[in-house]
């Protein structure tokens, strides 16, 4: 393993890519701590010291921004607008036939969809930046009574909106540069970096507040969760495919055997993001409709606070789990098209042994997908519920650094990056990073 790592840094091309990737990540992390112009950094730190913005609505978004949201920095929006835009463009393939045609046109169509994603990212970033600047004027952004803007003029607010929107565009550009000139998927590595940045503080807080015994329990469960995620993420159902021999001129082609790899978790972390985003809506309603003067809130706000104010209520947990399962089936159904796979196999003379080509193959693939999606959905639900159930019992749910979603993303990105490094090593040395 160490010899393989040494070979990476002895390969000039790989060494250049790695240093380029690390340099971009360092610039990204530096921008997390640079406050936006016009923001009162002292007031931000006072609000954070009060703990008014911990957990709930802010924890999920702040995780993806690497702490930049709670710092109201130039990269406060982070990569979330791009993630949201990517998901929306992917879902629009089901609604807009033109998007589905672009998806099937190969690299040129993909480039067009990427351009649409960029435009939508810019629009979402502008909308979110405007909302954030408006909330910062009153202090409602961090659930604090202090205004976070030094000057309440319209020019200052417009400057903050411009800086936050530009910060999102810069983050998107840096991610694309890593993908083109570095190692791994740039956007995924940015998310990985944002989540990993909070681990040392989270682990240290568990040690300080809960003691060494709870600290060891947290580490043990975190490592076991990591092993389980690696096992499931690498698991797949291999559907055998046989290609018949064909005569093309004087050559005989085909006759090979391969398989269709169907992963247990085909939806990745997308269903968890969907479910978390929907369950954020009650928190947003609670925040905007709770009186700032300390008076009694309306009855429906009290009801929402009781059931959705925190993640440890049984109703919240049950809905969260059911949403994840439902969104898993929904996302898999729009990303894996059995009819398209069946038609492609038939076009090139492929067939599944024991299954007729055409409609029978399509029905067989639908059956396999429905069977394999169920354990994948349960797996996602259980992983996402770990911070809500297991660690409530030891009272570290708010401080736990190994949340189900964060570990799922980190392990997935880590495996993807290692596989890419392994492929590049095999191209140059005939021996990969992993043996």
Could you walk me through the main structural features you see in this protein, from its secondary elements to its overall organization?
It is a single chain. This protein has helices at residues 2-10, 12-32, 41-50, 57-64, 68-71, 80-95, 97-104, 107-138, 154-181, 186-197, 199-210, 212-233, 270-289, 299-308, 314-335, 338-347, 359-389, 404-429; strands spanning 236-243, 246-248, 251-253, 257-263, 350-351. The chain is mainly alpha-helical. The protein has two domains: 1-197, Preprotein translocase SecY subunit, CATH 1.10.3370; 200-402, Preprotein translocase SecY subunit (Orthogonal Bundle), CATH 1.10.3370. It is globular and about 85 Å long. It starts with a helix and ends in a 6-residue tail after the last helix. Belongs to the SecY/SEC61-alpha family. One of its GO terms (cellular component) is plasma membrane.
Looking at the structure, what is the overall shape?
A: globular
CATH architectural category of the largest domain:
Orthogonal Bundle
- Biggest pleated-sheet summary: 3 strands, antiparallel
Terminal Cα span: 8 Å
Rg: 24 Å
The strand order across the widest sheet is 4-1-5
Number of domains: 2
Quickly describe the structure.
With 435 residues, the protein is mainly α. The chain has helices at 2-10, 12-32, 41-50, 57-64, 68-71, 80-95, 97-104, 107-138, 154-181, 186-197, 199-210, 212-233, 270-289, 299-308, 314-335, 338-347, 359-389, 404-429; strands spanning 236-243, 246-248, 251-253, 257-263, 350-351. The chain has two domains: 1-197, Preprotein translocase SecY subunit; 200-402, SecY subunit domain (Preprotein translocase SecY subunit, Orthogonal Bundle), CATH 1.10.3370.
